[in-house]
Structure formats: C-alpha cells, structure tokens
Amino acid sequence: MTALPAKTDKEIENFIRNYELKGATALPFYHELLEERARRSQIKHKLNIDKSLALLRQAAIEQRCITYGDLARASDVAWSQAHRLISGANGHLDRLLDVCYARGLPMLTALCVNQSGLKTGELEEYSLAGFAAGARRLGIPVVDELAFHHESRDASWRWGREQSQ
C-alpha cells in the first residue's frame, strides 16, 4: 500500500485526473486512488460506502432495484441531508461506481434508480446521463446510454445470482 493517506485531497484528485486523461484506468494504483477517494468521501458526507455496497449486493442477489432514499437509509442519513450528496459529479453514486470498478465488481449502481423507476428498473434521463458519464470517466466506452444501463443492470443481476449459489 502506498502512502495515500498522507496525500491531500487535491493531490489524490490530481493523480486520478492524470490517470483518466492518460486512459490508464486499468492500472492497480488508479484503483487504490479510487478507494482512497471513496474512503475520504464517506468521512465528509456521512454516506457509508460499505453499507451502500452491502445494500446493492443484496439487491443484486434478490434481482431487484433500490432507490436513492434506500441508500440514505442504509447509512442512517435523513433524505433531507443525503439527497444533495447522492448524485451528480463526485456524489455518493460516483464514489460507489469508483469502488465497484476498483474491486472488479459489476456496476452495481445500475440497480439504484429514481423512485419513479423502482418497478421498471429504469433511470430518468438526468440519472441515466450521470451513470453513463461516471462510466466514461472510468474509461468504459458508452455509446448508447440506455443500452449500457440495461447491460450493467443485467450484469449486476447475473453477478447477484452467482453470489447466492
């Protein structure tokens, strides 16, 4: 393990940005950087990465979707505080996507949808764009955002079925 805890947030962000600009997102050190950024994010924002991942893992096993509010509840954070921390660039979902990528997991965040899409598993347009942007940032090519979301959601469910065996 490197001395990442001794680095400033700005240094971590600069390292990450440089790896992304170089297209070097498959390198192990980049994965360490993503994990460190996620660790720091949960300290500042109170949304717990491990609790959210556990919830997403359970949703994958149960072949269902969850809502952003479910993520907030998993960390015992009121929606009134969590809603501005969940989505958007550098939000909790972005950090979860980072951790999934770093750990070689499917993009489990594909299972987290707006309340309106809970039964169908579909994302609203804004959320779909954010999900695709997060994947592109990690170096994953996305041409058709809707098809990519469906592929990621289905891959998460396939992974979930494997976990329950």
**Distance between the terminal alpha carbons, to the nearest Å?**
33 Å
Rg of Cα set: 15 Å
> Widest sheet: strand order?
1-2
The shape, in one word, is: globular
Number of domains: 1
Q: Report the helical percentage.
A: 55-70%
The largest sheet, given as strand count, sense and whether it forms a barrel, is: 2 strands, parallel
Instruction: Specify the number of helices.
Output: 8
Low-confidence stretches: none
Structural class: mainly alpha
Instruction: State mean pLDDT (0 to 100 scale).
Output: 93
Strand and helix order: HHHEHHHEHH
Extended strand count: 2
Strand content: under 5%
Please explain how this structure is put together.
This protein is mainly alpha-helical. It has one domain (4-163). Helix content is 62%, strand content 2%. The protein is built from eight helices and two strands; from the N terminus they run αααβαααβαα. It has a two-stranded parallel ribbon. Helix 4 packs across helix 5 (79-86) and helix 7 (125-137) crosses helix 8 (145-163).
Q: Which labels suit this protein?
A:
two-stranded parallel ribbon; 165 residues; mainly alpha
Describe the structure concisely:
This protein has helices spanning 9-22, 28-45, 49-61, 68-74, 79-86, 92-102, 125-137, 145-163; strands spanning 66-67, 112-113.
